[in-house]
Amino acid sequence: MVDLIGNFDFLQKYDNRVAHLAAQAERYVHSDPDAALFKLRLMVETMARTLIEMQVPELVDAELSVMLRSLQRSGLLTRREADDMHAIRRDGNAAVHGYDSTTPTAMRRLRDAWRLSRWYAKIVKRGAKVQTSEFKPPLPPAEDASQRAARLRAEALEEAVEARRDRTREALLLFGDQDDITAMRWRLRGELRALEGVAVAVGEPIVDADFVALVMAMDLEQILEHPSWGRSSQDAKADVEAQFEAFKAAHGEAEQAYLQERAKLAREARGGA
Amino acid sequence: MSDIDLDLATTWFLAARTMACGGDEPSVAEEAAAGLFARAILGLDEESCIAAKHKEHMQALTLIDCMAMAGKLPRGTADQVMTGVMMIAYAAASMQPLQVRWASMLASAMDMNEERFQRCCVNARVVASMLPHEQEAVGG
Questions:
Q1: Is residue A76 a part of any domain in this protein?
Q2: Minimum Cα–Cα distance from B51: chain A residue
Q3: What residue in A sits closest to B110 (Cα-Cα)?
Q4: Quick one: DSSP state of residue B135?
Q5: Which CATH number covers residue A38?
Q6: Touching check for B60 and chain A: CB below 8 Å?
Q7: Which of B67, B83, B125, B134 to mutate to test the interface with A (most CBs of A within 10 A)?
Q8: How far is A13 from chain B (nearest CA, A)?
């Protein structure tokens, strides 16, 4: 059946192992979405391992999230690819940990994997021209009315959750996807240079540039050991940890609610309780 | 979304972007740290963060506007904003002359003395030291 779909056939000449995992995911996307997501996660891990061997070989045995962060830091992974890889990692992990998945989730990640595959092929075969046709979603098998209704509800849920995640992401990022960062950088640096000229002309303020540079260069332990700072920095750490935890908990609760709703729809689609 | 939240979000993102742009190409660490700081520490909601970063809204503002808004912030909030701005430098583990100038300008706009500024820097280092782990929240 997979040969009839073949969205990932082009990948065989670049990385046979990755192509094989992708083809398996493609085959399972309707019959077993959990297995499809598991295969896609493995595919991303295999891609990341190959890339990390090229960039940071000492991290080759690290966890996937660590490898992805390192690849992002190195600049090899752009924001778009990193987002796709993290999404596959997240949904693959959920499937591995027993959360029932639905076909719409697996299909969305399959499409992400296809987009990643084209990018990956260009990276591993430096500058290769990768020719592919458009992504063709594998066709669903025959389904009865209740299965179809459950699938449509799962698709609607998936849409809503992806929209929510996009919104969270948009709120968190320093620059938007549409921002021209180079132009913004040029403008802000120009303004800073102009302000620098004014500061020199009117005299330095209380917290002058030399003082900022000095504090920046100070060793943290030196500051923390100072009687004026020791206590407050401990409090600060506790406060910050509590605030981060509260944010993560709220974020986690929303994801948990989605996973449970999705598991319920997956059981309905299978004709279960 | 209140006007107060939008003003704070605008001040924060403009100040943070300026700090990030004052150095080398903004890194992933700086990008992730800024948004997480806005949500977790400044307590801004998603709506305010998105509205503040709207292209037309941001383009209409200069750094003089940013300093004027920073000067109107309550003392505790101003300290938080300065902490976040310095956190960006610590997260990148470097600070270039234009970034030093921006920190100095912002501190003056907030009428900050050396002691307050130094306290913000201590907090910034504490927060920055926690970031590699916390970035997971952005990746999901």
A1: yes
A2: A171
A3: A207
A4: T
A5: 1.20.120
A6: no
A7: B125
A8: 31
Interatomic CA distance for residues A93 and A86, integer angstroms: 10
Q: Is residue A187 one of the residues assigned to a domain?
A: no
Domain carrying residue A44? 2-141
C-alpha distances (whole Å) from B70 to each of A87, A181, A229, B140 are 37, 23, 25, 32
Q: How many CB pairs under 8 A join A and B?
A: 185
pLDDT higher than threshold 50 for residue B48:
yes
Q: What is the mean pLDDT of residues A145-173?
A: 86
**Cα(A28)–Cα(A92) distance, integer angstroms:** 14
In a domain, A176, yes or no: no
Do the Cβ atoms of B55 and A179 come within 8 Å? Answer: yes
**Per the structure, how many domains does chain A have?**
1
**Domains, in order of start, for chain B:** 3-133 (1.10.3680)
Q: Is residue A20 part of a domain?
A: yes
Find where tokens 């092929």 sit.
A121
Average pLDDT of the residues in B110-126: 87
Q: Average pLDDT in the A29-34 region?
A: 93
Q: A93 touching B, CB under 8 A?
A: no
Q: What are the structure tokens assigned to B135, written together?
A: 């970035």
Q: Residue A232 corresponds to which tokens in the numbers above?
A: 């407050």
Cross-chain residue pair A207–B113, CB shorter than 8 Å:
yes
Amino acid at the residue B43: G
Residue B135: per-residue pLDDT: 42
Q: Where are the alpha helices (DSSP H) in chain B?
A: 3-22, 28-40, 46-52, 55-59, 63-71, 75-92, 97-109, 114-134, 136-139
